[in-house]
Amino acid sequence: MTRTTVSSLNAAAHTGRGRLVLGLLGAVTALLAWFLLSRGSDNPYFPPLEAIVERAWEYWTTPEGVDNILASLRTLSGGLFFAIVLGVAIGLVIGQLAVVEQTVTPSLEFARAIPATALIPFALMLFGVSDEMKIFLIALGCIWPILLSTADGARGIDTTMRDSARAFQVEGIQFQRYVMLPAVLPRILVGIRIAIPLSLILMVTSEMVGVQQGLGFVITQAQATFQILTMWSGILILGILGFLLTFAYSLIERRLLRWADPRRDRES
């Protein structure tokens, strides 16, 4: 690969269409590698990709399969919603008030060190086997990257911007909405991007204990009953779901960043 080709690829990676093309190329390459490695496999624990795709079509397009996917999406969206709202709100407070940061940092570090999955027994006792239990675990695990990234962005806002807002008497809610939020938005979006794959992991984990619906439940039951193709089809659907969520989020992220900084339109 020549230096010119590398430069062209690097330039394409900085445009919206280029990122999409390169992302699709990477996904197709990974699927092709999976297909070639599993082709003709007689190992029952590593079936061919075409057999997995066939089983995925047979099960996940049925009403039962669709219901399980929708149940997972409901809990995932609920957990992410609470994580984003609470993470941004608390992060903005911590990032702007030094006294609050110094007061709550030890407690936050203690809570952040506890894996959300370790609190599954506590969540079961608190909420029982319910959607609330799964939403609680997802929100608890996803709030940290959003909160910390938001606090770091609020803490590092340009002092010139603060002084200009003060000179024009932009204060209170107006300051938070028109100055702080656009300035911190890129950091908030970074936190959310990190939280999305975490939400998928916690969604599946929370559905593997006690519940009777969802992707995690189907994968666990298939593994326990040696329905290996169904298990792999659930893993395939989970990967597709993660790709679609990340792709959709990247489109939303670009639009929001253009709102925060219109100059980005010329860079896309």
TrEMBL record:
Keyword annotations from UniProtKB, A to Z: Cell membrane, Membrane, Transmembrane, Transmembrane helix, Transport
Major subcellular location class: membrane
One annotated Gene Ontology cellular component of this protein: plasma membrane
One record GO biological process: transmembrane transport
Membrane topology: Multi-pass membrane protein
Protein location: Cell membrane
Membrane-spanning parts: 20-37, 80-98, 110-129, 135-157, 178-204, 224-249
Pfam hit, one: BPD_transp_1
Chain ranges of the ABC transmembrane type-1 domain: 69-253
InterPro entries membership: MetI-like, MetI-like_sf
Entry similarity comment: Belongs to the binding-protein-dependent transport system permease family.
Protein name stated in the entry: ABC transporter permease subunit
Organism: Nesterenkonia alkaliphila
